[in-house]
Amino acid sequence: MKYISTRGRAPELTFEEAMLTGLARDGGLYVPADIPTLSGDEIAALANQPYEEVAFRIMRPFIGDTFSDDEFRGIIARAYAGFEHASRAPLVQLGPGHFLLELFHGPTLAFKDFAMQLIGQLFEASLTRSGDRVTIVGATSGDTGSAAIEAFRGLDAVDVFILFPHGRVSEVQRRQMTTPAETNVHALSVTGHFDDCQARVKDMFNDFAFRDEVRLAGVNSINWARVLAQVVYYFTSAVALGAPHRKVGFTVPTGNFGDIFAGYIARRMGLPIDRLVVATNQNDILHRCLTTGRYLPEGVIPSISPSMDIQVSSNFERVLFEAYDRDGAAVAQLMDELKAGGFTVSQGALERLQDLFLSGRASEEETGATIRRLRETAGETLCPHSAVGVKVAEEHLDPGVPMITLATAHPAKFPDAVEAATGARPGLPPHMADLFDRDERVTRVENDLAEIEHFIRENIAN
Ligand SMILES: *Cc1c(COP(=O)(O)O)cnc(C)c1O
């Protein structure tokens, strides 16, 4: 299996190389050269299998000969052993034809653990074999960073530097990043927004001298291995509701377009997904683009669902690549226009995008009201991101087709928003009950490439 860049001008890589590289050298993102498909019988045979077994069958065709079957099974087993729920991703029913897929039973209480725990094990296996070291940099709106630090802390062959926007992550998110004592992980609090953090990470990848000097590796949602890990729970949940004999819909609270892009891949692999709904908060650039074809960043307005406070949605590039029939030059052109302020999708590409995705947005008031209402009607306490999803899903219910909304974080990760909506403060699960008593270690930096690179150079282990 080969991986190609969405901008068409970087070398083809293997799965292992694409995983360790992150961003392609032409600025693009890696995608598989072909997308394998499963037959109806193969999908049906996933029913009632353990999560790890489904994960193996879904991901195996994408990893080529990077790992033997036994190695890969071991990696998957270790990745999900720390989850608190035996089914890893349980489904609960919210109402007629509407289900919630709880993706928050991993160690840092957000769906990011599904991908990051796997990536930690993949990196460890690959680097142990090669004897190499890498420096991982990542930008986070809160959950990626905590999941990455949790997955990589204490591993020998990696140093991890996570950039998060100062004052714009929840206290639980911040403490999950700043309290691990292992010295190979570093949390950097950057003056600015998430988009600034993400831009500095991209700058580091485009500074080839620095990139090679510190052997930079990326674990942001641009990393293909993360998308791949997320494809799995689309299969487990759809099959639990009767796929492939029955169609299902999914609604996905969306920021960087990684999670919903995994749903698109699941559909390309043969899962009968009838509708794939993009749900955004008031930072609704994706909803506007899918409606009008114009992608015009307007500046982030902080919301109660901060992990989706994003205007430059990096994985959207992957779906543009598909909508433009894999024309890398056309995608490179759009991304140049984006640097100059924004772009307009061609009519043909927009029609294709609209065939693939529905979309909707939830205001702050609607998000709070949804948290309050679902607690009363379903006994389910939603985090604000999941509430955005539920609200938008309700606008797209179809009596014949079950809808699955992805619950992307545990409510205790965003206690202020949940308490404001319901009057009750959600408590942390027992394994992190002492989070607020642990010591924090964090470095304050300006939104300045040279300063950030200097800190990294000074703090890598060799
Ligand atoms: C990261 C995140 C999202 C957005 O996911 P993308 O893959 O970036 O679209 C939504 N909700 C929560 C809780 C998250 O952490």
From TrEMBL:
Enzyme class: lyase
Known EC number: 4.2.3.1
Positions carrying N6-(pyridoxal phosphate)lysine: 112
Cofactor (UniProt): pyridoxal 5'-phosphate
Pathway annotation: Amino-acid biosynthesis; L-threonine biosynthesis; L-threonine from L-aspartate: step 5/5
Gene3D superfamilies named among the record's database cross-references: 3.40.50.1100, Threonine synthase, N-terminal domain
Known catalytic reactions: O-phospho-L-homoserine + H2O = L-threonine + phosphate
Ranges of residues in domain Tryptophan synthase beta chain-like PALP: 100-332
InterPro entries: Ser/Thr_deHydtase_PyrdxlP-BS (IPR000634), Thr_synth_N (IPR029144), Thr_synth_N_sf (IPR037158), Thr_synthase-like (IPR004450), Threonine_Synthase (IPR051166), TrpB-like_PALP (IPR001926), TrpB-like_PALP_sf (IPR036052)
One annotated GO biological process: threonine biosynthetic process
Sequence similarity: Belongs to the threonine synthase family.
Listed name of the protein: Threonine synthase
Source species: Pseudooceanicola batsensis (strain ATCC BAA-863 / DSM 15984 / KCTC 12145 / HTCC2597)
